[in-house]
Specification:
The protein is an alpha/beta fold and 541 residues long. 39% of the residues lie in helices and 17% in strands. The protein contains 21 helices and 23 strands. Strands 1-8-2-3-7-4-6-5-9-10-11 form an eleven-stranded mixed beta sheet, with helices on both faces. The protein has a five-stranded parallel beta sheet with strand order 14-13-15-12-16, with helices on both faces. The protein has a five-stranded parallel beta sheet with strand order 18-21-17-22-23, sandwiched between helices. A hairpin with a 6-residue loop joins strand 9 and strand 10. Helix 1 (14-25) packs across helix 6 (127-136), helix 14 (387-396) runs antiparallel to helix 16 (419-446) and helix 17 packs across helix 18 (493-501). The mean pLDDT is 94. Bound molecules: threonylcarbamoyladenylate and magnesium ion. Magnesium ion (MG) is lined by residues 143-144, 152.
C-alpha cells in the first residue's frame, strides 16, 4: 500500500501543483482531473514510471496509453512526423477531448506504446491538467484512473475508490465536464479512422477532414478472430458488477417490460423515474447526449452501490456525442440489446417431464408464436469447427474433442467438477446463446410475430429469464413427471429420479416464474395457456 496524498485543485495554489510536478518528475504516479475523465499520470519518457500505472490499474500489457501535452511545442519530442491532417485536427480541437494517433518518436518507451509504432497524443483543456503537465516539465502518459474494467472515474471520489493506496497522489479538480473519454482518431492509415468516439463528435471531425472511417469495433462486438485497431476496444469495459441490458423502443413499452421485474433497476432519462415502479437512476434528458455523457459513468458506479442484479437501460441517441454514450453503454451491457417495440419474448421453462415441449408446440401452432429452442442453440454453437468449441477445448483440454466433435460426457465431467469450472463454461457459452437468441427474436419481429417463446430448461440458472418480458413455468407433481419420463424415454425409475434430482425442484421453478401452468389432472393445459395470453395483453395491449 502506498501512502496516497490528496490535493485539492485551486488555481491560486501553485505550491500543490509544484509538489505534484515533483512527484511525477521523480517517477511517481498521480490521479489528475481532465475535462473528459480523471487520468492516472506518469512521466511519458520514464518506462519504469509508466509500468507502475499498468500495475496500479491491473491493465492488460497490450493496451497503449495516451500521451498528454500542455503545449504544441512538445509534440516534436513524441512523434516522428506530423501529417497535415494531424495539424488541422490539433489546430481545431486542441486543447480538448481529442487524441490523435501518429507515428511514434524515439523518446517514447515501449511501455507507453506497447510495442506499436504509433502513439496517441492529446492536449487536455482542463486547467489543472495543463498546470500539472507544465509543472512536471514532461509529457504525461495517462490512461483513465479506474481499475481496469470498471467505469472511468469522473469525480475525485471515484479515483479515491479505485486508486487509494495505489497512486502516489490524487488531485481533486471536481467533476469532469465531458464525462466520457476523449475521441481517438488515427491519421496514420490511408483514410482517417475513428477508433473510439468521445467528446469530439464524428460530425465535428468531418467538418475538418471530410469523410472519416468508423472502426467496426465502435458499435459492434469484435469476433474472437478479429484484431482490434484500438487495443482498448476489445476489452470488456465500463462494466458495473451488476448486469446491464439495453432496452430500446418507446418509453411506454420499456415501462411495461420492466414492470414485473424483481431485484432490478432502470437507467432512464430525466423525468421518467416517477413513472416506473422500480429503482431508477436518471442519466440526463432524453435527447441531451452531452448531459448523458456527463452522467453515464457515475450512474454505472451507483448501480453497484444499489445491490441489484440487473439494470435495464433506456437506449440513447447515437448521433453527436451520443455515439460515445451508446459505445460505452453497449460495452457495459456486453452488447445485449432488447427491442421492447418488437415481438414480446416469453420465457418458457419447467422441470423435466412437466410438459414444456407440449406447451411450446401449442403456443406456436395454435397462437402463431415464434419458438426458440435454447437447448438446440446450445448444441448448435458447439458444433465441429465452431469458435465456441475451440474456446471450450482451450479452457477444458483438447481431449474434450474426439474426431472433431465435442465429447459431451467429457466436457460435463470437467465443467461440472467445481463452481469455478461451471462459471467458466457459462462465461463461454451464455453470451453466444444470448446473442443468437436475440438475433432470432429480431428475425421473428421482422416476420411480423407478436410473441416469441424462449424455451429453456435452465432459464433461471442461466439468467436468460432477464431477457424475457415474463416467464412461464409448466409444472406437474413428481410422481406424474416420473411416469412420463420413464414412458417417454423408456428408462428405469432410478434413472428418471436421477434426472429429476439434477434440476431445480418444481416448487423452486414456481417461485421464480411469473405464470404457472398446471399440466396435470384435473387441469386442462389448453385452458392454462390462456394465462400466458392474458399476461401478453398486459405487455402489448
Ligand atoms: O479522455 C481520455 O482519453 C482519458 C484522459 C485521462 O485523457 N484517457 C483515456 O485513456 O481514456 P485510456 O488508456 O483509458 O484509453 C486509451 C485508448 C485505449 O482504447 C487505447 O487502446 C487507445 O486509446 N490507444 C492508445 N494508443 C493507441 C495507439 N497507438 N493505437 C491505437 N489505439 C491506441
Ligand atoms: Mg480507460
Amino acid at each position: 500500500m502506498k501512502n496516497t496524498l490528496l490535493f485539492k485543485y485551486n488555481p491560486e495554489d501553485s505550491e500543490s501543483i509544484r509538489q505534484i510536478g515533483e512527484i511525477l518528475k521523480s517517477g511517481g504516479i498521480v490521479g489528475i482531473p481532465t475535462e473528459t475523465v480523471y487520468g492516472l499520470a506518469a512521466n511519458a519518457f520514464d518506462g519504469e514510471a509508466v509500468s507502475k500505472v499498468f500495475k496500479a490499474k491491473g491493465r492488460p500489457q497490450d493496451n497503449p496509453l495516451i500521451v498528454h501535452i500542455s503545449h504544441i511545442s512538445q509534440l516534436d519530442e513524441i512523434v516522428s512526423s506530423v501529417s497535415e491532417e494531424a495539424l488541422k485536427l490539433a489546430e481545431k480541437f486542441w486543447p480538448g477531448p481529442l487524441s490523435v494517433i501518429m507515428p511514434k518518436g524515439e523518446k517514447i518507451p515501449d511501455e507507453v506504446s506497447c510495442g506499436l509504432d504509433t502513439v496517441a497524443v492529446r492536449m487536455p483543456s482542463h486547467p489543472a491538467a495543463r498546470a500539472v503537465i507544465s509543472a512536471a516539465g514532461v509529457p504525461l502518459a495517462a490512461p483513465s484512473a479506474n481499475l481496469s474494467g470498471s467505469p472511468s472515474p469522473t469525480t475525485a471520489q471515484h479515483v479515491i475508490d479505485d486508486m487509494w493506496g495505489r497512486a502516489d497522489a490524487i488531485l481533486d479538480g471536481g467533476s469532469c465536464a465531458v464525462g466520457v473519454e476523449s475521441t481517438v482518431i488515427s491519421v496514420v492509415g490511408e483514410k482517417p479512422r475513428l477508433l473510439r468516439p468521445g467528446g469530439i463528435s464524428v460530425e465535428q471531425l468531418e467538418s475538418v477532414l471530410g469523410e472519416i472511417e468508423i472502426d467496426p469495433a465502435v458499435l459492434a462486438e469484435l469476433k474472437p478472430e478479429q484484431k482490434a485497431a484500438s487495443p482498448g476496444m476489445k476489452y470488456k469495459h465500463y462494466s458495473p458488477k451488476c448486469r446491464v441490458i439495453i432496452v430500446k423502443g418507446s418509453f411506454e413499452n420499456f415501462r411495461r417490460f420492466v414492470k414485473r421485474k424483481k431485484k432490478c433497476a432502470a437507467l432512464c432519462f430525466d423525468g421518467e423515474s416517477e413513472k416506473l415502479n422500480i429503482p431508477c437512476i436518471e442519466i440526463g434528458r432524453e435527447h441531451d447526449s452531452s448531459a448523458q455523457a456527463h452522467l453515464l459513468f457515475e450512474a454505472l458506479r451507483r448501480l453497484d452501490d444499489m445491490g441489484i442484479e440487473t439494470a435495464y437501460a433506456r437506449c440513447p441517441d447515437s448521433d453527436g456525442v451520443g455515439l460515445a454514450v451508446i459505445n460505452r453503454l453497449l460495452r457495459a451491457a456486453a452488447f445485449t440489446v432488447l427491442d421492447a417495440d418488437g415481438a414480446v419474448l416469453i420465457g418458457l421453462t419447467g422441470p423435466t417431464g412437466a410438459g414444456k415441449s407440449t406447451v411450446a408446440r401449442l403456443l406456436s401452432e395454435k397462437y402463431g408464436a415464434g419458438h426458440i429452442d435454447c437447448d438446440a442453440i446450445a448444441r448448435e454453437i458447439m458444433q465441429k469447427d465452431s469458435p465456441v468449441l475451440a474456446q471450450l477445448a482451450n479452457a477444458f483440454g483438447e481431449d474434450i474433442i474426439v474426431d472433431g466433435e465435442l465429447d459431451r460426457a467429457a466436457l460435463a465431467a470437467r465443467a461440472f467438477a467445481s463452481k469455478e469450472a461451471t462459471k467458466l463454461l457459462n462465461s463461454i457459452t451464455h453470451p453466444v446463446i444470448i446473442s443468437k437468441s436475440l438475433a432470432k427474436v429480431n428475425d421473428f419481429t421482422r416476420e411480423g410475430k407478436t410473441a416469441v417463446i424462449l424455451d429453456a430448461a435452465a432459464i433461471f440458472e442461466s439468467k436468460i429469464d432477464k431477457l424475457c418480458a415474463f416467464t412461464a413455468v409448466v409444472t406437474a407433481p413428481d410422481e406424474i413427471r416420473m411416469d412420463r419420463i420413464m414412458y417417454r424415454d423408456s428408462i428405469t425409475q432410478e434413472k428418471a429420479l436421477h434426472r429429476m434430482g439434477a434440476q431445480l425442484s418444481a416448487k423452486e421453478y414456481e417461485a421464480k416464474a411469473d405464470v404457472v401452468l398446471k399440466n396435470y389432472p384435473p387441469y386442462d393445459i389448453e385452458t392454462e395457456i390462456i394465462k400466458i395470453m392474458n399476461e401478453l395483453k398486459e405487455i402489448k395491449p
